Amino acid sequence: MNEFHLDRTLVRRHFARAAAGYERHDALQRAVQEGLLGRLDFYLEQPRLVLDVGAGTGRGSALLKKRWPQAQVLALDLALPMLREARRHAGWLKPFQRVCADALALPLPDHSVDVLHSNLCFQWIDDLAALFGECVRVLRPGGLLAFSTFGPDTLRELRAAWAAVDARSHVGRFLDMHDVGDAMIAAGLRDPVLDVDRYTLTYSEPAELLKELKGLGATHADAARGRGLTGKAHYRRMLAAYEEFRSDGRIPATWEVVTAHAWGPPPGQARRGRGGGEIASFSVDSLRGSRRR
Question: So, what pathway does this thing act in (predicted)?
Answer without folding.
Answer: Cofactor biosynthesis; biotin biosynthesis
